[in-house]
Amino acid sequence: MTKDEEIARGAPTTRLSGSLIGQQPRSIHHIPGMADNIISKYPRLGGPDWQVIHGDSRMNPEGGYLEFYPPEEGWNPIPGKPTISVFDKTLTPSQTQRMVFGDMLHHLPSVDPEFRAMRDQFRGTITPEQDTIDRRAYQRAVDKKGESRPYDKWMDVSRLDAYLRGHLAPDDNNEWAGSYTPKQLEILGNMKDLLWQPPAKGLLND
Asked: What is the dihedral of CA 145, 102, 154, 174, to 10 degrees?
């Protein structure tokens, strides 16, 4: 499985060891223009003060490609700001931009009520067949990757965003193609239309 395929399928980016919580990177190296390039294509993401940096390998003990840190997380390299650390230096620029865009979608529901409502609507369309597949994926994560969150938490934080990324930020092979119902594709289309709009009035920067 390629990097793009693994990310699109919802594989975890990286999980921080408890022993590293509270440590800060040795230095901060921003990736110039990355967030601005994405926001120019998807203006709705333009509210928060995004920080996209080269990740410190000490903060990536399990070898993930990149990691999103909410502003309030104690191990955020730039506390108080939504931050994405890119750890894998072998990613191409296009792969990096696509993956960073996908991780930016993690934060949008917490600052954009309209996007959050669409995300909640999407979750309500999960079919019994999709639920069965998701629960199998969760069990694999528990058995093989040490996943410790309850299923509902994992579904909300990880798997649901993988559904969204699979269509909004697909990999080169479009691995999630054919995985959606017509209603889900309608919601995803509405999400994409929203991402092309300016930030919501009154949306505050982090």
From this structure: -70
In the chain, what's the furthest Cα-to-Cα distance? 48
Q: Are 15 and 73 in contact (CB under 8 A)?
A: no
Task: State the amino acid at position 103 in one-letter form.
Answer: D
When computed from its CA atoms, the radius of gyration of the chain, rounded to whole angstroms, is 16
Least Cα distance to 157 among 49, 70, 64 occurs for: 70
Q: Which residues contact 182 (CB under 8 A, 6 or more apart)?
A: none
Measured over the CA atoms of residue 180, residue 184, residue 187 and residue 189, the dihedral's sign is: positive
- Give me the mean pLDDT over the 30-53 stretch: 94
Whole-model pTM over 0.85: no
Q: Residue 172: its pLDDT value, please?
A: 76
Q: Report the C-alpha gap between 137 and 11 in whole angstroms.
A: 9
Question: In which residue are the tokens 């990880």 written?
Answer: 158
For tokens 């509405």, name the residue. Answer: 190
**Chain centroid to CA 131:** 20
Beta bridge partners of 30: 53
**Can you spell out the DSSP letters for 143-156?**
HHH---S-HHHHII
User: Coil, helix or strand for 173?
Assistant: coil
> What is the per-residue pLDDT across 63-91, written as a single tens digit (0 to 9) for each?
778 899 999 988 899 999 999 999 988 89
Polymer length of the chain? 206
